[in-house]
Amino acid sequence: MLDGPTIASSIHDAGFSHVVWIPDSHLGTWETAIEQSSLVLVRPTREGEAVAIAAGLLIGGAKPLVLVQCTGFFEAGDAVRNVVHDMKLPLKLVVGVRSWQAVRDGKSRDNCPTFAEPVVRAWGLPFTWIEPTADIAACRTAFATLAAADSASVLLWAE
Predict the structure, then answer these.
(1) Helices 136-148 and 4-13, packing angle to 10 deg
(2) Ranges of each domain in the chain
């Protein structure tokens, strides 16, 4: 299982400067490691605000990464639409897909996993999936690929 220090170093090594984030579910387990890293941690009050803050950072020349859970991504839809399609900014997001593994294993009826990928597709965002059981090399590659993308992109984290 990938741990917080591996995630924080992977984000940093990929070249991200800021993490804009409301800790939630599995992504919340990374909090201490991100706080202790050299990444600048910005804590918005809502996910739509996280996207707006990231947009400002992008305009200012920073390289932010937005971390949200799938339900927060749904809430932030209009901000994502505006930043990505109107402003044409290369927004980068990690979207934690809550209950992905439990639904896949028939242990939950949470509908967040049902809608996460279709909503990302509806916004026209390129995406890749990663599971917390991936190895460190796959994690580092996923964050490096996300950071290197010329356009807005999403890393779907299968919680």
Answers:
(1) 40
(2) 4-158
User: How confident is the model at residue 67, as a pLDDT?
Assistant: 96
> What are 12-52's pLDDT values in tens digits?
999 999 999 987 877 888 999 999 999 999 999 999 999 99
The token pair at 70 is 């799938």
For the chain, list residues with pLDDT below 70: none
Q: Which residues have CB under 8 Å from 97's CB, separation 6+?
A: 70, 112, 113, 116, 117, 156, 157, 158, 159
The HSE-up count of residue 91 (CA atoms within 13 Å, CB side) is 34
> 4-158 adopts what CATH topology?
Rossmann fold (3.40.50)
Nearest one of 154, 6, 25 to 102, comparing CA atoms: 25
Report DSSP state, residue 71. H
88: left (phi over 0), alpha (psi -120 to 50) or beta: left
Note the maximum CA span of the chain: 45
- CA angle at 129 for the pair 125 and 46, rounded to the nearest 5°: 60
